[in-house]
Amino acid sequence: MAKSSVLSGIQPTADSFHIGNYFGALRQWVQMQDTHECFYTVVDLHAITAEFDPKVLKKRTLSSFAQLLAVGIDTKKSTVFVQSQVPQHPQLAWVLSCFTGFGEAGRMTQFKDKTQKGGQERSSVGLFTYPILQAADILLYQAQSVPVGEDQRQHLELTRDLAVRFNNQFGQTFVVPEAFIVKESAKILDLQDPTAKMSKSSPQGCVFIMDEPDAVMKKFKTAMTDSGKEIKYDPANKPGVSNLLNIIKAITNEEMSAIEAQFANKGYGDLKTFTGELVVEKIVKPFREKTLALLGDEKELNSLMSEGAQKAEKVASATLKSVYEKVGF
Ligand code: TRP
Q: Phi/psi of residue 6, each to 5°?
């Protein structure tokens, strides 16, 4: 039987992915390669829906692509590509936009949040239609499963609605995808504010995979911990300590009780140093070095990118062709 297919995308909106992206998403992407037919894309078209600088965008797209390979996405197993290099994405998005209600798009909470922050006038129409482009990303590859965070659930619902609507009107065209929501327990919190999700907007509390090892150690050593002395997994009362324990668990896969036991007679300082060193050794150092090596050979990297785009385009063009025929183009 053919493997079931998966598509996911990540925006090139930072110089580096962080360990929250890794544990919350990228690690699942790597694991799914052995059991699924995977398509992974750096969504640079989506990245211009917010303020951007062309030179920076280009650099980040290249670096994001390299980082995907560095964390273990394998171009021999998966199709890895840059969204703007596959013209079928905006082409299908246009058709889908003509099947999306204005009110329906207006109900997307991510759009509402972002416009509230940036103001109506500064929000582009591209930001408004962002989820329709995302639907096109998914439907072009007939993906059955889409690994995403909880914040993308509504976009996935829209994607499903559009697929069903089109299929009902024109006959079976798209696979109706399922969201594969990554477990909440994999959520890594801000080291400075362990009540918030780790995010690039709070760089001191965020551990980037491209950080220098010394910088990573410093971030862990100054991580916020809690009152008391006991090292115990208790997210409600000890969010800082629990976050560090959770990071250890994400790496070692041990039972929480076994991890707690290792720190029975130790202090917060020991826990911070231990976690920092573990993250440096197992995540930051290997991923950073691999990324830098890949970026050192830009010619080779560009050729991997165009191979990925070609592989993607084969699949995407077949879907688009059938859509174009059905709508009368
Ligand atoms: N909107 C997604 C995010 O911000 C990124 C994305 C774009 C995506 N296209 C996608 C995710 C297709 C999954 C599938 O995380």
A: -130, 140
- Residue 8: CB within 6 Å of ligand 1? yes
Q: How far apart are CA 30 and CA 171, in angstroms?
A: 34
Distance 42 CA to ligand 1 centre (A): 9
In which element (H, E) is residue 47 found? helix 44-47
CA separation for the pair 216, 42 (Å, rounded) = 25
5-186+297-327 is classed CATH 3.40.50.1970:
no
Distance 127 CA to ligand 1 centre (A): 13
Dump pLDDT digits (tens) for 159-195.
Answer: 999 999 999 999 999 999 999 998 766 689 999 999 9
Please tell us whether the domain made up of 213-293 is placed in CATH 3.40.630.30: no
Tell me if the pTM is above 0.70. Answer: yes
Read off the tokens for 205.
Answer: 């509390």
